[in-house]
Amino acid sequence: MHYPFILDKIREITEKVSDKEFFDFIDFLKKAPRIYIIGAGRSGLVAKAFGMRLVHLKKKVFIVGETITPAMRKCDILVAVSGSGKTTSVVDVARATKGLGGKIAGITSNRESELASLSDRVVIIPSEFIPREVASYDLRNIMGIPLPPMGSLFEISVLIFFEACVLELMKQLGIQEETMKKIHANL
């Protein structure tokens, strides 16, 4: 069964996230007048889930690409999520953010990536460094090498990281769950 293996891998990844990067990210978010969120595919879904939690924490949050997203202003921040740190749509928006005077928090597994180099704050989720001696998922499965397909460990680990951020922000901002529930969507 692959279940214990995946849980162990997620624990291993999340335990390697730097405490300094975690708390720098928290401070960065607390100071942001407005927060923009971007990610592609499943990373985008995880980023949007975090954006929802930030709204519950009374932050002004916008999803890049939505028709009702306002123009970015100087000192706003972009939270950009990309496992490779090379996703074209994410990197292009990060470049545009820099040009507009915004700040960037990059969440990636690749410290050497363009996203990391553009970012004012970087959080490394060290999940992509799992060796893949066998490239094909099906062949890995047959051989008993139970690595999840296509970056799943990154996205799951980022979700856990973001939930830890929510808990820390609740503590630092003095916001109780009951207050968050009042802001939760009701339509």
Summarize the structure.
With 187 residues, this protein is of the alpha/beta class. The protein has helices spanning 3-15, 19-31, 41-56, 88-99, 114-118, 137-142, 152-173, 177-183, and strands at 35-39, 61-63, 77-81, 103-108, 121-124. It has a five-stranded parallel beta sheet, with helices on both faces.
SSE layout:
Blueprint: H1 3-15, H2 19-31, E1 35-39, H3 41-56, E2 61-63, E3 77-81, H4 88-99, E4 103-108, H5 114-118, E5 121-124, H6 137-142, H7 152-173, H8 177-183
Parallel strand pairs: 1-2, 1-3, 3-4, 4-5
Helix pairs in contact: 1-7, 2-7, 3-7
Describe the structure.
With 187 residues, this protein is an alpha/beta fold. Helix content is 50%, strand content 12%. The chain has 8 helices and 5 strands. It has helices at 3-15, 19-31, 41-56, 88-99, 114-118, 137-142, 152-173, 177-183; strands at 35-39, 61-63, 77-81, 103-108, 121-124. Strands 2-1-3-4-5 form a 5-stranded parallel sheet, sandwiched between helices. Helix 3 (41-56) runs parallel beside helix 7. The radius of gyration is 17 Å and the shape is globular. The termini are far apart. The mean pLDDT is 89.
Unreliable stretches covering 5 or more consecutive residues: none
Number of strands: 5
Contiguous helical run count:
8
Average pLDDT figure = 89
Give the percentage of residues in beta strands: 5-15%
Helix and strand pattern: HHEHEEHEHEHHH
Strand ordering within the main sheet: 2-1-3-4-5
Helical percentage: 40-55%
